[in-house]
Target: PNPLA domain-containing protein
Amino acid sequence: MDPNQNFTILSFVGGGIRGLMSATILQRLSQPPYDTLINQTTMLAGCSTGSIITSELLAGTKPQGLIELFTGSEIGFYNNMNDKPDAPAYPMIDVLYSQEQLHGDTPVSRAGKDVLLVSFNVGALKTNPDGRVVPKPWDTLMFTNLLGTEQDQQSGLDGNSSTPIAIAACSSGAMPGQLGSVEGNVDGAFFNHDPTLAAICLAVHNGVPLEKIVAITIGTGLMPDWLASDTANWGAKQWMNGDGNPFDNTPPFLMNQTQPSPILDMCLNGTSANMMPRLCKMLLGDRYVNINPRLPCFIPENSTSPQAINLLQRHGESGDPENFEKAQALLRDYWPKSCPPINTTISPPPNTGGVKTPASVPSKPKAATSNAAPGATPGHGEFFFIQHKESGLVLDVYKEQTAPGTPVIFYEKHKAPHSLANQLWQFVPSEENPGWWYLQAQLSSDIVLTLADAPVPSPAPVITMEKKDRAGKPSQLWSLISTEELGWWFIQCKAKFARVHLTNPDAISPFVIGRGSNGQPDPIAVGVTLDYAADEPMSWGFMKVPDAQ
Model:
């Protein structure tokens, strides 16, 4: 490498279908005079869906081609989902086939550009020559052409450079639950779903001065997570399964996972989302930028609803403008005209590691308020006003009636000494459906908020109070989705009335509570299709009841 030339890194993180946003950002960056950006980049690094992007770029795919991939065949792939939790949601063989179509059996050592793909090997048992069974411990894996010298081998640094690019890319994207493992290799998220820091380390290891390294990370959307409960007295059960708080923002991480696992989300997402960019910024200062637009709510890795696809493209085209401008400045000030790889003098060693090349591809607790159950924390036994963001009105059971079929309306928030019973709401967990709740008014424990069944699909089914079906009727079950402005929420119904024959539950935009009219003075609550682009008419805040009331 020319000592006067900068070592430039483009890094792509994990996120499934949200890679569409990464591809859109890349296209946005690759406008003239940077339309040859990929060729001008020294090193490409990827994890999970970022490894698939990296693999496609190594094969010559243009950013527009990546967008067409994510809006075309990837949607078809994700819609064809196995919904049984005891087998992978999707067949790895299909992914392997598509990657072989790109690269054949070309190894990482001949990638044509400096590259890093990250994965994790779960370990195994092996048999010694004397017949003794010996464990092979699990370990992180790097597939790179920047490790391979004799000194690297002596230091125990293996780049697995003889592994086919197709196998490496699939290994990096083999998320448990979603896809089967590849030779015991699973998703690089267990390494770290942001590979940028590892890429910087490889450059330094190969003699590149830190001040010559420049990096841009392209994310798949920042979706903040948090636990709403007081965790001071949690044991293994709560850390593994949560405690059923509707205000938690730790969605199930794995496909076909029935309930959240806070410890899993913390380990796989908590460090990558913020810590990796912070560490890279410490190392490189102004020579590092992370473009990662904030998404308005959680978008599952296999979401294919038109709303989600449009949202990802919109945020890719215009999101995170401040960091996008900083990235453009890096391209202008640091990116060279061309970047020959620095690994051309490294001869890849024989593959003696654990990666095989198969012959064929198969805080202190809060005091309880007067309206909460003893010892309650938010979401556990506490009653709230549910206030509409756009109008300021609250959900109200019409005229305090307790008969089934009573409509739910929008109304001014009551003040003492007026009765509050028809405006105060409590989450009651569904035992049969972890992660879903009944919304029960203080007025009566026998009736709950219900999305009315319609004989034909309706664009705005009404919301009424009906007798609780303890078996867990989907039209009576609700969950919260945080909006982009923290403290406001979509209230999502489990029922989906769209008539489509897809096994992927995230292919359909859900119904959430919105505002309708029945010709009466007070607007009524109805189910409306979630619209990420216009959230105020369907956003809600949960207002605590002052102690005086």
Observations:
- DSSP finds twelve helices and 21 strands in the chain.
